[in-house]
Predict the structure.
Amino acid sequence: MKKLVNDPATVVADALRGVAAAHPELRVDHGNRIVYRGDAPVAGKVGLVSGGGSGHEPLHAGFVGPGMLDAACAGEVFTSPVPDQIVAATTAVDGGAGVLHIVKNYTGDVLNFEMAAEIAAAETGVQVAAVVTDDDVAVQDSLYTAGRRGVGVTVLLEKIAGAAAEQGRGLDEVAEVARRVNGNGRSMGLALTSCTVPAAGRPTFQLADDEIEVGIGIHGEPGRHRRPMAPARELAAQLVEPVLADLDFTGGDGVICFLNGMGGTPLIELYLMFAEVRALLDAAGVRVARSLVGPYITSLEMAGCSLTLLRADDELIRLWDAPVRTPALRWGV
Amino acid sequence: MTDADVVDTAVLTAWVRHFARLVAEHAEELTALDAAIGDADHGTNMDRGLTAVVAALDGEPPAGAAALLKRVGMTLVSTVGGASGPLYGTAFLRMATAAGDRPALDPAGFAAALRAGLDGVAARGRAEPGDKTLCDAYAPAVDALDEALAAGRPLGEALVAAHAAAERGRDATTPMTARKGRASYLGERSAGHQDPGATSLALMFQAAAAAVR
């Protein structure tokens, strides 16, 4: 394993020291491993708390700031945060309007956020609502699985719900917008390589040089099937087809199209893939209203990408365009 | 009786300490099993949590069985993370509730507490038998424990039977297709791999048998 670390056991704590050093506008609670926007709690505003395993940066700490999250709880690499952290964050960002938990649908995240919400309700009386993202179409049979995984749509949801909260909307309304984003978003990913959890020291799975894994999640867990490596335009179809087969994205006010890098793929390849994806969407009659290209929800150094489409309406696009000021997304300010 | 027929804080402490030792010894194996069908962190996470539990038990001694079990559960919830933290944490918290205000448990009381832990885990994880989870080792273990106690066997022997049943349950997870947790994303590709959670759960019963013997 060749990684820029001091000690595999202190990766998360050491990285949070870097976040604090690079972003004086944020406040980092190193003991609880929580990143707060500097002015939290914002009086009268619904607080947005997310979190999850580390290793997906910039998700979630990179999305803390005005127009997006109020707090992000960092777990160990690929391991959900614990209830103590989530309760502390929830209490600290409550500006009197309640707190929305944004949770990716993984068993660990769901259980820890659930326990936290129970504890927060019992001990602090803060009003908590939760939205669980589950946009990954790679998981086909949800009756016999833990349900679809939460992946790329989480980024779009944190931005859009963050804008709704910033406008001063109430908890129910912010939660409704968040659920609308999740309900209208679908994702599919593929991996060219595995990734190495620092504490494990070796790749989570093995892929031959001429093989790719299709239907990958964001934790180095193997995907749905393996296939031979192929030119980008063929791989783009592997992403676009299952997404379009799952939901009708034609008509309406168009889609927000998000091509995400898994961490180890350079932007030149992501833009190349984006051109292929756009061509396929154009051919399918899907109008792209807004685009986002880059590594925003990653899986350590995994090479590969994921596609997220969000069926948008005027309101969601206005919220997408609203000002945001975070380490990873920043516009309109 | 030659076996310990009183499960007091000393026995519970010995049990949990031995569980921590076994998990530390098997941490790499647990993580390797998790790498095959999950996300390669089960051994690391359980080892970190149980190390914290041992440290917590080194502090001021708890007043009784429930206080000890609660301290174990809260520490696991706070330090393990992942799904295992809430699941193992819930098991010990439910055991604490079942122990009530008794300073120590008799064999039937200990068995009832272990079963309350199983019920808590199954409810928290929404797991059913055959889903390829730790419940597939936990359920046969408490069944065997109840059966052995009902047959009049001493607690130590009954826990040996429970441990054997947990290992059989653990082994039986290998051909199963996972329906809960991250392994479920693999569908049929999860078959042929032993479940990591069922593996650590069998260690919990191995430790119990060793602590009471």
Notes: Chain A has a mean pLDDT of 95. The two ends of chain A are 41 Å apart (CA to CA).
